[in-house]
Design goal:
- With 287 residues, the protein is of the alpha+beta class.
- The protein has a domain of 174 residues.
- Helix content is 34%, strand content 23%.
- The protein contains seven helices and twelve strands.
- The strands form three sheets. Strands 2, 5, 6, 7, 8, 9, 10 and 11 form an eight-stranded mixed sheet that branches. Strands 1-12 form a two-stranded antiparallel sheet. Strands 3-4 form a two-stranded antiparallel ribbon.
- The radius of gyration is 41 Å and the shape is elongated.
- The N and C termini lie far apart (106 Å).
- 21% of the residues are buried.
Length: 287
């Protein structure tokens, strides 16, 4: 499957839905707590989790891993150092198509401040969107006081106490697609033989790996064991053949006896007559 390079999905600071802020410690918590085997964050569209696998509100991929670093971000014309969260994503074909079409080029995370009652923040979702203004500006300004607007976004969360981050533009939303060779059987075999030092390309100037000497210390014992196994197998096959021949002979004998009995037994449903004895009185016929 294809996967993305690491790209920034959130920074510490303002959130997108309720006037709170993403704490620096939350980002470090997310890195510490994220484990796909424990809870895998899926990629969705506009923070909407559809109940159907059909587009457009189905899943668009999975977050494979996350990392954090300090970035210099220009805010109100002034550079500031902020803690940033980066994610590596395994996309579906639909997300790759969106990326190629330059659609949904911003991302926003959903954070559970008290993930699984651990007291630490955790990543529970990643949305792709084309609405950075509404999520990153208008909602920042009005959601804390606009109850209907806040309720609309709360309805999209796994839990109303969760937080949507302000949207981040993806600078390099590209995916490393596997080549046909690596996915094919031929590619797998080529990689296997190459790992053994075999099948080097003709134009490769590197010296082929020298074949490793065969360890012959136990050759005699191994040969004896193999010979013993072959003798045992041959004896088993011979015994099976003899048993089969004896069974066949027995069946032939029983069949012959049955045939003789059938040929000498009067048919039960046939007409019966008294046996001729040849005694008088009888009428002589002049031939």
């Amino acid at each position: 499957m294809a996967k993305s390079k690491f790209f920034r999905v959130a920074v510490e600071g303002a959130t997108a839905t309720d006037g709170r802020v993403i704490e620096r410690s939350w980002i470090d918590d997310i890195v510490a707590t994220y484990n796909r085997a424990t809870y895998g964050a899926r990629v969705n569209l506009e923070h909407i989790r559809g109940f159907s696998p059909e587009a457009p509100f189905n899943a668009y991929g999975d977050v494979l891993s996350v990392k954090a670093q300090d970035d210099i971000i220009e805010i109100a014309g002034k550079p500031q150092k902020r803690r940033a969260l980066y994610a590596e994503v395994e996309p579906t074909d639909a997300l790759i198509a969106l990326s190629k079409a330059k659609q949904k080029i911003y991302t926003s995370i959903e954070v559970a401040p008290n993930f699984a009652a651990t007291g630490k923040a955790g990543l529970v979702g990643l949305a792709v969107t084309d609405s950075p203004a509404s999520l990153g500006t208008d909602i920042l300004e009005f959601s804390a006081t606009n109850a209907p607007l806040k309720a609309m976004f709360d309805s999209r969360k796994q839990d109303p106490t969760n937080v949507f981050s302000a949207c981040q533009e993806v600078a390099d939303f590209s995916f490393d697609e596997p080549t046909a060779e690596t996915e094919s059987v031929a590619g797998v075999l080529k990689s296997f033989f190459t790992s053994l030092g075999l099948g080097q390309p003709a134009n490769d100037n590197t010296k082929p790996a020298e074949p490793k000497p065969v360890q012959a210390a136990n050759d005699g014992a191994q040969f004896a064991a193999l010979q013993g196994a072959m003798i045992t197998l041959a004896s088993t096959v011979d015994q099976a053949v003899k048993t089969s021949a004896a069974a066949t002979a027995g069946l032939e004998k029983r069949f012959g006896e049955l045939e003789t009995k059938l040929n000498t037994t009067e048919r039960p449903s046939g007409p019966a007559r008294a046996p001729a004895t040849g005694t008088a009185p009888f009428t002589a016929i002049d031939c």
